[in-house]
Amino acid sequence: MSTQRLSRDLRNPSTGMSRVRLAASLIVLALPLSGCGTGALWDKFMAKDDTFVDQPPDKLYNEGLYLMNEKKDIKEANKKFEEVDREHPYSDWARKSLLMSAYASYQAADYDGCIGSATRYITLHPGSPDAAYAQYLIAASHYDQIPDISRDQGRTQKAIAALEEVIRKYPTSEYATSAKAKLEGARDQLAGKEMDVGRYYLQKKDYTAAINRFKTVVTQYQTTRHVEEALARLTEAYMAIGIVGEAQTAAAVLGHNFPDSKWYKDAYNLVKSGGVEPSENSGSYISKAFKKLGLG
Questions:
Q1: Whose CB among 13, 120, 214, 278 lies 3.0–4.6 Å from 230's, allowing a Cys bridge?
Q2: pLDDT value of position 39
Q3: How far apart are CA 60 and CA 65, in angstroms?
Q4: Which long-range contacts (CB under 8 A, 24 or more apart) does 123-132 make?
Q5: Runs of H (alpha helix) within 204-260
Q6: pLDDT-derived band of residue 143, with 50, 70 and 90 as boundaries?
Q7: Which residues contact 152 (CB under 8 A, 6 or more apart)?
Q8: Which tens digit of pLDDT belongs to each residue from 2-47?
Q9: What domains are there in the chain, each with its CATH number?
Q10: How far apart are CA 200 and CA 197, in angstroms?
Q11: CB atoms < 10 A from the CB of 214, how many?
């Protein structure tokens, strides 16, 4: 076929297709002329290619469950779940497999993979009863990566945001209760970070910087285990720079809310050594922080 004729065929699809059909009929007519073995050649020509036959979605899904639960082969199980999603994207099995893929990734500590699958699940199926669980998996993935207090707490902030999302979106779900417990743990971690830095500044006698750190704990993390020490450290820092009134308030609030705390004994002795008693100033940010929670 000449280049000019090919060009015309491309511009005129009907002409091109006519020639293709003519060529195909000539091949069929030529087959009987080839003598012996024509039957095998014909069978090969007409045979259906079964190489890419899709497997039933339920079979793939159950194979994934078996690999995950019985063989403990999370990686291979995940491949099965992903295959369901790829080959049967609009089936109910694909929805289930996507969630199981997120769970399998979480079990394998592949937190980025879990977050990716769970986020996709929520995007595709926001109204599903299992959307709460998908959101919880995202939060748990961030939570399990919280570093120790000596390191940057960016991951802790992400965990808190994700846990609050579970509580906000699904307040009556079973996952909200677990999210609240983890949220307290994450907040405690941030408070611990503030205390760690505050102690450093206190040791360096940089009292203003230390007070700012302890103030954050008192105003933002009153329900954490670090608040008792934060109040005692505020008493110490304020006494050191001569702001006795705030020192008295910190000691008084500490004694009122945690009368049996060892930190209160230290704070009490500290203000007494300065010739004063613990005495609360209701206008202080320390008092207001606790009254806001009904603790003052």
A1: 214
A2: 53
A3: 9
A4: 124/95, 124/98, 125/95, 128/95, 130/99, 131/170, 132/166, 132/169, 132/170, 132/173, 132/175, 132/176
A5: 207-220, 227-241, 244-257
A6: very high
A7: none
A8: 434 433 443 444 444 444 343 334 344 344 444 445 555 445 544 5
A9: 57-188 (1.25.40.10), 205-292 (no CATH)
A10: 5
A11: 30
What's the pLDDT tens digit per position in 196-208?
999 999 999 999 9
Rounded to 5°, angle at Cα 19 from 16 and 21: 110
Counting Cα atoms < 13 Å in the Cβ hemisphere of 279 gives: 6
Q: For residue 203, give both structure tokens.
A: 């040791």
8 A C-beta contact, residue 187 and residue 223: yes
pLDDT at residue 53 greater than cutoff 60: no
Cβ 259 vs Cβ 250: under 8 Å:
no
The first and second tokens of residue 116, run together, are 């990716």
